[in-house]
User: Fold this.
Amino acid sequence: MSVPPGYDKYAHEPFAVTVDLAVLTVAEGALHVLLVERGQEPYAGHWALPGGFVHPDESAETAARRELAEETGLSDLSGLHLEQLRTYSEPDRDPRMRVVSVAFAALLPDPPEPHGGSDAAEARWVPYDKAGPLAFDHDRILADAREHVGAKLESTCLATAFCPPEFTLGELQQVYETVWGSALDRPNFRRKVLATPGFVEAVPGAARLTGGRGKPAALYRAGPATALRPPLLRPSPEGRPA
Assistant:
């Protein structure tokens, strides 16, 4: 595409575009987030969300996947669920220059251990409750990502993106409880999940021992549905089960 005659592309103050990723997973019964230790200024030695500058020849999503692989060493992203969160554009959010960030929320089940790369000195999974304070405005981005994911669990089948290809209903319930920070009534949860067409599908003849002396739990996989009708609402502030 050619520049229109008479248009001055240098008439406006230049600014940079970056991507930031709030990558979440459920591990050991707790919500974890992937963080990197910055190896360069600004905020050298501080923890931050992985991310970086968008190259002129790539989209924001392409940049997000590239930066995630470069900074954390997670090269196999086949199980990654990635969706755009929002844009952060406060003029003073980066001390170097005007920087607009396109933030993404990402979910990754059963993730491998990361390692620092590119301009990240280290990378690690950190329990969500112990993740701050972070560099730049990443505390805000992380909080927004959790709220975004928590809201989508009510109306979509996104929870299965936290699960391995085959999972028990107990493991699916743990995703909801971990993200929402609330305990759910097990029989009621099971009834709602199984009554929602296309939410999950039973894996014929498959079961897994989950501890204790009970019988093995049946295994399920994600179904074809994308929306929950009716929605699966999180508990009320008074603690009423969903």
About this structure: The chain has a mean pLDDT of 91. Helices lie at 60-72, 138-155, 169-180, 186-195. The longest strand covers residues 16-27. The radius of gyration is 21 Å.
